[in-house]
Specification:
Layout: H1 6-15, E1 20-21, H2 28-31, E2 45-48, H3 52-64, E3 69-72, E4 88-91, E5 98-101, E6 106-109, H4 115-123, E7 127-128, H5 139-145, H6 152-155, E8 162-168, E9 174-178, H7 183-189, E10 198-205, E11 207-208, E12 212-221, H8 225-235, E13 243-251, E14 266-274, H9 278-285, E15 296-303, H10 304-308, E16 320-328, H11 333-343, E17 352-357, E18 379-387, H12 393-407, H13 428-432, H14 436-446
Helix pairs in contact: 1-3, 8-11, 11-12
Length: 462
């Protein structure tokens, strides 16, 4: 369907406690606003669910009336699949509850919560789980795609820390999935995205972290990039799992510890966090401070919550975003050459290339243990095309695509599903590799009509 009629709007209003927002309502444009400003879609209706009962009722109405359905949690996904044109957007953003059980070291999290919500509650007890690096990212989307960040090397991916979920499947029923209950569904949702239903509660295992961690940035001029990145790839083979160091190539933002003459200059930034002993972290990061001649650095003991928010100013909503991503087994000379070439011609001050270091605990999990399959990845190479002016769409998208093609010969062929754009349906097989056929069979079992198809879609097996 390309629109929703009045009878359906009335049926929704009669079924749910939360508001049903139609295109004629004054709050409609705000309600359909998401993080990536490139996405311009107009749902036929948006239902803001207040709880599990609302989700069950809305799914039943959508199924009975054969509506096109999108599901919004944090609204942070790069592809913009939180919205649809003409169909029904099931909006979970008001379901934000986070409950911590400090004795069991578990967190109970609703799908509208973002990373900052979970970090804030867990850190009250000196606990955390493996999440991403931007506090405004939605917990739901991050988790369902795999999830990696500063704690991944020590504690694994986000899905490796997931103990159970409660969810509403395509038949409108609530189910629980864990290692003991519906284990096949639990396997599928750990990396299979939103293909199998709507998670209404996540249960995470927590670990002692902080409240202070050693973290910071060391900034070098781009002119030193080749020597820096060659030293970086050797250095990361020597470090333990409780430290993560990422490399970012971009124009320097106006950071207070950098001279004004450096602001706007092309730089290589090494960002790191050590979750163990502060003095040990200082010893471990010392080599990075001497890779070359730095332009500035900011290193110190920081509240974990503050470090999780450190990159929020660079990833605010409202900008136009186009990303491409590769998985790397190593940072070879060819990949370094491609990174440097395209870092020298950034089309916007907000564009960047980042190299995320994985490995550690994330690589010690068997390939078939979760739907997320990329257990041999050492680096994720991501190009962030990001800008504000719509007139620069072609230029910035072209830069992102050209870099992606230049780096492709040095990549593994797989891709992290959360970094895929809407157009990359041809890479879905690469996102799941040998796990794809099993996922397709489970899709047939739990969503045979493909109700949940506005995602990086796994089609039901024939």
């Amino acid at each position: 369907m390309n629109s929703i009629d009045r009878d359906t709007i009335q049926a929704l209003n009669e079924s749910v406690r939360g508001p049903v927002i139609a295109p004629s309502d004054p709050e409609y444009d705000q309600a359909r606003s998401i993080w990536n400003a490139m996405v311009e879609k107009r749902p036929g209706a948006i239902v803001r669910c207040t709880g599990v009962a609302d989700v069950m009722q809305v799914v039943q109405v959508a199924k009975d009336r054969d509506l096109l359905v999108s599901v919004r949690s944090g609204g942070h996904n790069i592809a913009g699949n939180a919205l649809c044109d003409g169909g029904l957007t099931i909006d979970l953003s008001e379901m934000k509850s986070v409950h911590i059980d400090p004795d069991a070291r578990q967190a109970y999290v609703e799908p509208g919560a973002n990373l900052g919500d979970l970090d804030h509650e867990a850190q009250a007890f000196g606990l955390a789980t493996s999440l991403g690096i931007n506090s405004t990212t939605g917990v739901a989307g991050l988790t369902l795609g795999g999830g990696f960040g500063w704690l991944t090397r020590k504690y694994g991916l986000t899905v490796d820390n997931l103990a159970a979920v409660e969810m509403v499947t395509a038949d409108g029923h609530r189910v629980r999935a864990s290692a003991d209950q519906n284990p096949d569904l639990f396997w599928a949702i750990r990396g299979g995205g939103g293909n199998f239903g709507i998670v209404t509660q996540f249960v995470f295992n927590l670990h002692p972290v902080g409240p202070l961690v050693l973290s910071g940035l060391v900034v070098y001029p781009l002119e030193q990039a080749r020597t820096l990145l060659m030293q970086y790839r050797e250095y990361v083979d020597t470090i333990p799992d409780d430290i993560g160091v990422w490399a970012v190539l971009r124009k320097a933002p106006p950071l207070p510890f950098l001279s004004e003459s450096v602001h706007g200059r092309e730089v290589v930034v090494f960002a790191f966090m050590h979750s163990g002993d502060i003095e040990e972290g200082q010893r471990l990061i010392e080599p990075v401070r001497h890779f070359g001649e730095p332009l500035g650095e900011h290193i110190g003991a920081t509240p974990f919550v503050a470090w999780q928010q450190a990159f929020d100013p660079l990833l605010t909503p409202g900008a136009r975003n186009y990303w491409k991503s590769h998985n790397l087994a190593e940072l070879g000379d060819g990949a370094i050459d491609a990174v440097i070439e395209y870092a020298q011609k950034l089309p916007s001050p907000q564009c960047e290339i980042f190299i995320a270091l994985l490995g550690g605990e994330a690589n010690r999990v068997a390939v078939d243990s979760t739907a997320y399959v990329h257990r041999d990845v050492k680096f994720v190479l991501n190009v962030h095309g990001r800008w504000n002016d719509p007139d620069r769409d072609a230029e910035c998208i072209s830069w992102s695509r050209d870099f992606f093609e230049a780096a492709k010969p040095y990549a593994m062929g797989g891709v992290y599903v959360n970094f895929m754009t809407e157009e990359e349906t041809d890479r879905i097989g690469a996102a799941y590799g040998p796990n794809y056929d099993r996922l397709a069979r489970l899709k047939r079992k739990y969503d045979p009509g493909n109700l949940f198809r506005l995602n990086q879609n796994i089609k039901p097996a024939a």
